[in-house]
Design a protein that fits this description.
148 residues; alpha+beta; 6-stranded mixed sheet; 3 helices
Length: 148
């Protein structure tokens, strides 16, 4: 391919994977503070979903494994614009499986590629816990791509 898209950063609103057990205060404190909530409600079942928990959901292998796997699974797409902004949402269910993957942004090709990358990562997560009970957890992170 003529152009390569390099990941400049995947910044997770939820920064706890692997070693840390508590969710940072960087997360929306409630579901009502989630960006694009009205549009999400049309695409996801948000009943009983939380954005903060005593223990955050954990990807097997931690944050670095998530970055690496996501990067490997995401298709490279040629694009004329210099910068692409996408926000990815998904729910880690009580059983640890990911459901309701949705990406929001301006470029449909990148939205579809981000959603497909998450779906290709068919891995069972350690679910989020509140009072030692598993809960449905809304995971969200911005994805910033820049073309070189």
């Amino acid at each position: 391919m003529k152009n390569f898209i390099i990941f400049l950063g995947i910044f997770l609103n939820i920064t706890t994977f692997g070693q840390q057990k508590e969710v940072k205060n960087e997360n929306p404190k409630s579901i009502s503070e989630v960006p694009n909530l009205a549009e999400l409600r049309t695409k996801m079942k948000l009943d009983d979903v939380v954005t903060q928990a005593d223990t955050a959901p954990e990807f097997p292998g931690g944050m670095e494994a998530f970055y690496r796997t996501f990067g490997e699974k995401m298709d490279v797409i040629e694009e004329k614009s210099r910068k692409i902004n996408v926000r990815v949402y998904f729910i880690v269910e009580k059983n640890g499986f990911v459901r309701y993957v949705t990406a929001l942004g301006e470029n449909k090709k990148h939205l579809q590629a981000a959603e497909t990358a998450i779906r290709r990562m068919f891995v069972r997560w350690k679910p989020a816990m509140i009072n030692n009970e598993p809960v449905r957890f809304l995971y969200t992170f911005p994805l910033a791509l820049k073309k070189y």
